[in-house]
Fold each of these.
Amino acid sequence: MPSIKLYLSWYFAKQVYNIDVMFISYEGLLDNKFDILKKLCNYYEIEYNAKNVENSKQSKGSADKMLTEKQKEKIIETFKPYKGLDFSALGV
C-alpha cells in the first residue's frame, strides 16, 4: 500500500494544490536512476550538475552540500502550499 499512498499524495498535490509534479516509477528509478535524475532536473528546470551526481555516488554526506541556493529555493517553493505540515524530517 505505500506505493498507492505515494501516488495518491502526488495526484492530490497536482489536482487540489495545482502543484506541477512529474510522475516517476520506483522501478524506473532503480533501473536508471541517473537518467531519471536528469529528466527530473530538466522537468523542474534545475541545473543538472554531473560532477555533483558523481560526488554523491562516492559520499554519504548531506544533499545540502551538493545543491545550489537556487535549487534549494525551488525545492522549498514546492512545499509552500502545504502550510501547517512539518517537513523538517525531509530537511525542508
Note: Residues 2-90 form one domain.
Amino acid sequence: MRREKVYTVQFIGGPFDGHVQAVRIRPCDLAKLVALPVSREIFQTLSGDRPAPETLVTSEALYQLESTRNSPCYRFLKAIAPVATQTGS
C-alpha cells in the first residue's frame, strides 16, 4: 500500500501566527491566496476535533503563499469582515 506524502505549511502573522498545518497537497499545488474564517473554535476544527465552528465567525484572515527553500508558508495580509450569507428565500 502506497502512503501519501505529508507536507507542512506554517502561518506567519495574524490570528494563525505560528500555526503549522499538515497537508497532503504538494507545495507547488497550494492555493496562492487563502481566506480562513476566524472564530473561537477554529483551531479545534483545523485539528479535526470539531467538524465546523459552532461560534460566530468574527472575521476572515487573508494569507498569501510564500515559497521558501525549506518549506512553504502563508503570510498574513489582512483581516476582513466575514461574508454574510443569506438563508431562506
Note: The longest strand covers residues 59-66.
Amino acid sequence: MRNLLRVSILIVMLLSALTTSAQSYLQKRTVAAVEAEIGIGAVMATHKISQIGDNNLGVGASVELRYNFAKVPVDLGLSLAASTMSRGKGISGAIGANNFDSQTILLTSSYNFFQGRGASIFLGLGMGVAFCDRDSVNSGSITRFCAMPRVGVEFAQRIRLFASYKVYEKANNQFMFGVGFVLGGGKRD
C-alpha cells in the first residue's frame, strides 16, 4: 500500500509539473470544454492465484465525463466503470467458476500531447474507490482505494485507444485495453 501511495504521489507531481510548463505557453483552447466518453475493453488480472488456476479474459465498460481546461492541455473528469473476469475452472470444469466483479468511481486527470490535432496522446491518472465482489477462495465483498494510471491515443477527437492498470488489491489488480467513443468535445468553434 505504501508503494501504491508513493507511485500515485509521483504521478500527480509529474502531471503538476507538466501542467505548470504548459501554462507558460498559454495555449488557446483547441477543443470544446466538456466531453463524455463511453468505453469498452478486455480485462485481465495481472496476478495469478495458484489455488484457482489461470486468469481468463473478462470485459470492462466505463463512462467518463471530462472538462478540458482552456489554457492548458489538461482535462479533469469523473469515471464510472465496471468489470468482470474469471479464473480457472470450477468443479464441473466450466470456465468462470471463480468470478471477480468490480465497480470503480474515480476522479481522473490527463495531460494531452498534440491536443486538437488528428491524433493526440494522453497520459493520465485516476484515483478513487473500488467496490469488489469476489467469488473464490477469499469470497466476499470489499471496498478499497483505487489508483489507475492510463495512457492512450485519441484519433480525430472521437475514438480513443487506451491501456489502463487498476491497482487496488494485489490478487485482483487488473490491466485493461480498450476503445472509447467520445461524445461532445471535438474542435472548438
Note: Residues 2-184 form a domain with the Porin fold (CATH 2.40.160.20).
Amino acid sequence: MIDFRRIQKKLSVVLCITSIFSLSEAAESNFKWRIPLGLTHASYFSEINDATQRKLEEETYGYVESTESLPIALFCAPYVEHMPTGLGFGAEIGPLSMVLGDGSYTNLPLGLNARYYPLRGNTSPYLKLGLRKNMVSGDVIEGDSIGFCGAVGVEFNRQGAVGYGLEVGIDKSEIEITHGDNWESGQENDILDGGVTFSLFVVF
C-alpha cells in the first residue's frame, strides 16, 4: 500500500530545499560587489608640503635639502550595489598622501559612504555621500577631525569585466597644522579640510 503521507513529507522537504537555493541565487544576482581602484588629487596636498618645509627651515635655520610631496595618491573604494534599486554601500581607503625627504607626513583617510546609480545601463552617473577620518601623522600635524564628504561621478562599461570612471568630490574632514612662530600671517595654527578632489579609476 502506498504511503501518501510519507511521499508528501519528502516532496515538502525537496521543495523547501529548492526554494532556499532559489532565494539564495536570487539574492546573489540582486547584489554585486565592485572594487574601484584609482588615483586622486586633493587640493590641500601642496599646503601640507609648504607648511612642512617652513617648519623645517625654522628648526634648521634655513637649511632644508628637500621636501617632496606626492600630489596624486592611490585609493581603493569597495562597495556592494543592490542592482534593482541602484543603491550601494561601501568603504573607502585613501587617498594615501606623503611628504618625502627631510620632512615627515603620512595620511591614510578611512571612510564609509552610500551611493546611488540612477541608470541601469552600461554607463551611469552616481552620487556619493559619507564620512571620512584622516589617519594622519607628521612634523606639522596638531590634530584631525571626522567630516562629511560627497562626490558626483560617472562609471563606464559597468556590464563588462573591468569598468572605469571619473569623479569630482568635496572632503570636509579636517587636519590641524602648525605653521611655526615665524609664519607671515602671525597665525600659528591652521585647519585644512580635504577641499576639492579629482579622481580617475578602474572598477573590478
Note: The radius of gyration is 25 Å.
